[in-house]
Amino acid sequence: MSASHRDQRRLQRGGDLSALFVGLGLGITIAIQVSTTSSHDLSSAAGLVTIAGRLCALSGTYFALVGLLMVARIPWVEHSVGHDRLVTWHRKLGPWSLYLIGLHVILVVLGYSMNDKLPYYRELWNLITTYPWMLPATAGFVLMVMAGVTSYKKARAHMSYETWWIIHLYTYLAVALSFTHQILTGVMFIGHPINKAWWIGLYVFVGGSMVAWRFFLPLFRSIRHQLVVDRVVVEGPGVVSIHIKGRKLNKIGAQGGQFFGWRFLTQNFWYQSHPYSLSAAPHDKLMRITVKDLGDHSRSLANLKRGTRVLAEGPYGIFTVDRAISKNVLLVGGGVGITPLRALLEEVPRGSSVDVIYRAAKAEDLVLKKELDYLAEQTGARIHYMVGPRDQFPLTPNHLSKIIPNVAKCDVFVCGPEALVHRIRHSVEALGVPSSRFHDEAFAFHSV
Predict the structure, then answer these.
(1) Where are the transmembrane segments (predicted)?
(2) Where exactly are the structural domains of the chain?
(3) pLDDT tens-digit profile of 400-440?
(4) In the CATH hierarchy, which top-level class contains the domain 3-221?
(5) pTM score > 0.90 for this model?
(6) CA 117/CA 115 separation, integer angstroms
(7) Phi and psi dihedrals of 123, rounded to 5?
């Protein structure tokens, strides 16, 4: 069995096991509400509405915790499930968590107002101002709404990555602020030590995972491998390569095509972690990333000083050559999306037939062109530069088959904007490339 087939079976098993554990946890969480519901609670409309609201709170919070666990960067989970799948699940689960917690607020206030025979707005005000631990919970809910709204595609398109990232961090604070409200006032926890132990255990496990894998592991690696900036090289207009040196970097186990969350310990950006792919195959003493000016952080990287300390989370992603089934390989990159493909090109096995399509709007946007040309000479790869407007190079099935006649036999690796990834996926599927031989790395998967 090939490495790629083993990887696919591993990912399938990982996905199945993940769904099983999440389902079991949800069942236990729902059982907490069911087991603590009395006949008195079921005897009135107000009681039924309140129970439904509490069930929404438990389920919504559970989904929020699972969502955080999906991006906790737990190594064996990342390896068995895949980073892109985890991020996709995280994004799909997030809105449901917010909807359920919002419904909890609506239903519980409604149930209490029906029971107290008060107007809805007055009951809401009374709960916020007089109910124990309600103010922190309210603040947490507002923060969660803010993080949720800014994560919608249209809203996110109007803000920088840095702004979105900072707002998104409020999700952690939102979940933490709701904890005391749940544990100290939730009727399903008061006088029920087993239920309380389960809920506290969930919070401790998720919080501990976040701290261990997203903070302490990168810190340990930075100290162990002595990661520092070696030099910064201008590659083109608004594009720089950062060479990061260290010791025994092969122990990290990175491959071309993977990415890290990089934290450069400067005065202004030490608290921010940003995802960038390796733009060259890693070596024992050196790794390299190539970054385009797309915001405040990426713009500042051109001014990094030699010797700046670096924390690195990763490596992440399964966008690697060992996923290939065929000896025919097609690499498709758009703009700065060529960088992980350039690293992949170094690691393609000898004897492979390789084509590279490099899409760019202008000639000056062809990043790392000299290196690609050199690697093409060394490996026999054929590089197809497509510079100009999209309608000149539509990359339709007909257009693609003329450039790469054997595309149906290829493993296809694509990296770049989502529009490019979707266009290539549609074209190669129409030409007979099965999903098992299509490998994509959309930039959107990195940013969580």
Answers:
(1) 20-39, 51-72, 93-113, 133-152, 164-191, 197-217
(2) 3-221, 226-316, 321-445
(3) 999 999 999 999 999 988 889 999 999 999 999 998 899 98
(4) mainly alpha
(5) no
(6) 6
(7) -65, -40
